[in-house]
Design brief:
Elements (H helix, E strand, L loop, with lengths): L8 H41 L2 H17 L1 H4 L5 H18 L2 H9 L14 H14 L2 H11 L5 H8 L3 H20 L1
Helix pairs in contact: 1-2, 1-4, 1-7, 2-4, 6-9, 7-9, 8-9
Length: about 180
């Protein structure tokens, strides 16, 4: 015979209230977590993708994955690195879905022109650099961003993208040259 566990109504409400309070506290903590890291995650994705709308989608995906693991992550000292890695991987996966398209653009040698602003303020220069990076063909932009902003080696980039080492070196070189042309105009 199975004994039924019974709780008085007051005990039930007391236990339920603690659960709701804990969930609300975790939700508030996660909102703070998002506010603290959203710009970093978005900038990683935007630099790799070169498309702000796609970067917003990837940023949302990153935080969905973070929410699923939030209890493990919130006490970690490496949470920023984890978020960067997830944002990088999701961005590259997104681009890999369109590999044929970005191969076409990486082999197309014509640089994309952007208008240079008149002022030489640091914020304007940073904004101009970000805009120029977004204008690069996908293969050049991804390799360049992974090398300069994610501190990955040529070998790591080649492995992550599934391309040859020579292709990575060529794309980074072409990306630098195109950036020089875009910025000096």
């Amino acid at each position: 015979m199975i004994a039924a566990a019974t709780l008085s109504l007051s005990q039930f409400h007391e236990r339920a209230g603690r659960g709701v309070d804990r969930e609300m506290a975790e939700d508030e903590e996660f909102e703070t977590f998002i506010r603290n890291y959203q710009n970093m995650v978005f900038s990683v994705s935007a630099r790799i993708l070169g498309n702000l709308t796609d970067a917003e989608d990837i940023t949302q995906e990153v935080f969905i994955k973070a929410y699923e693991r939030f209890r493990q992550l919130r006490n970690s000292n490496a949470i920023g690195g984890w978020l960067k890695t997830v944002a990088t991987n999701l961005s590259i996966n997104h681009l890999n879905r369109y590999r044929a398209r970005w191969r076409f653009f990486s082999e197309e040698g014509a640089p994309v022109e952007i208008a240079a602003p008149e002022t030489e303020k640091e914020n304007d220069r940073q904004e101009m650099l970000e805009l120029a990076i977004r204008k690069l063909p996908d293969a050049q932009r991804v390799s360049l961003v992974l090398f300069h902003f994610q501190d990955m080696s040529y070998e790591e980039i080649a492995a992550k993208l599934g391309v040859s080492l020579a292709k990575v070196k060529t794309d980074i070189h072409r990306g630098r040259e195109t950036l020089k042309q875009l910025i000096t105009r």
